[in-house]
Amino acid sequence: MNKSLLIKYINGKTSFKENRDVISWIDKSEENHHYYEILLSSISGINIDTLQNTLSKDEIVDNYLNVIKKIKSAKSHNFKYYLLRSSAIAAVILLLISVLINIKQYYNIKDFNFIDKYLSNNEVTTYYTDSGIKGEIVLPDSSIVWLNSCSKIEYPTHFDTDVRRIKFSGEGFFDVRYNAECPFEVVTDKGMQIQVLGTRFNIRSYKDDNDEQAVLFKGKVKVEKKFIKDQVLYLRNVELNPSESITFVKNVMNSGIVRVDTIQIDAWRRGKIIFKDTPMLDVIKTLERWHGMEIIVKDKSIFHHTLTATFSSESMVQIMELIRFTSSIKYKIVDNRVYLSEK
Fold it and tell me: pLDDT tens digits, residue range 240-263?
């Protein structure tokens, strides 16, 4: 689904046919539904602190329950029909869902597990961030996870008593609450597994990358990676100490532990991008995720370049201008695409 069409729909400027296409896409999967909620929430710019000062906790809880009842009632009376009748109704209802989820997390409301079940298919809660969007969530055990752009996390509504296991892809910073009796495990879509009791670490494991990385900031972690080579299964186990990193390259078994600059690794969580002699391929992937724009390389020699720079609030144009002045790369932006070529 085109992101600009979703924004147009939220602003109530779509035609009837476009309304129908958007609603059909939202209803197609839980992931589409949740993505729309995130986009709607980010566009609305609602401040939870303002809501707290306006309404008491009891009033918010009452509103929370009333809205959910109305949503369920509408759903039982052909919810699709009502959405198609008015994009404004759809926007309001989904906005309320998004706001109330944030309120629930803000106040740490424990008694309304049915909303998790309603939005998470009874068992698993899923969050993901689109290009250019970052997020922070609190897990059922009070551990905190920061999600970088294009990341996804799945976890049970309630952790088991013997293990806290989640699935993850993308990049995330984990601040895990200590529990000696219930280890915390992160399993990536690419097969890396991290086991901890309580610690702070960063994972980068994007599906379209050839490698994945774990970096420890505090405590100690055990990292496990399985390899299949020539139809034989191999297993690699390592333990990391603070400021140590392990990077697994696809089908390579001899990845070693190295010390890294944790300030650079953690920069994205503070709203910065730090490149230090970074290969242009990695620069391009980072900028695409950071700004939500596609970068097309017309001359393959561009991949021989590296970049050293720090960015925070700069636009894509400002970043491209710096690259143009410091290298032989020129650029052209058409619509939402950036074309790179040699001068």
Answer: 999 999 998 876 666 789 999 999
Helices 280-291/316-326 angle, 10° precision: 160
CATH class of 124-261: mainly beta
SS3 track for 276-309: EEEEHHHHHHHHHHHHCCEEEECCHHHHHCEEEE
Summarize pLDDT for 301-340 with one digit per residue, the tens. Answer: 999 999 999 998 888 999 999 999 999 999 999 988 999 9
At position 62, the amino acid (one-letter code) is D
**Spans of the chain, pLDDT less than 70:** 9-14, 16-17, 19-20, 34, 36-122, 228-234, 251-254
Give the separation between CA 136 and CA 265, rounded to whole angstroms.
Answer: 17
Q: 272-342 belongs to which CATH class?
A: alpha beta
Q: Domain spans of the chain?
A: 3-119, 124-261, 272-342
E runs forming strands in the chain: 124-128, 135-138, 144-147, 152-156, 164-175, 184-188, 192-196, 200-205, 211-218, 221-229, 232-240, 244-249, 257-259, 273-279, 294-297, 306-311, 329-334, 337-342
Cα distances (angstroms) measured from residue 134 to each of 8, 115, 170: 22, 23, 11
Neighbours of 241 (CB within 10 A): 11
Sequence-separated contacts (24+) of 264-269 with Cβ below 8 Å = 265/202, 265/215, 266/173, 266/202, 266/217, 267/310, 268/134, 268/148, 268/171, 269/134, 269/146, 269/148, 269/173
Neighbours of 269 (CB within 10 A): 16
Going across the sheet that includes 294-297, the strands are 294-297, 337-342, 329-334
- Tell me the C-alpha distance between 242 and 265, whole Å: 13
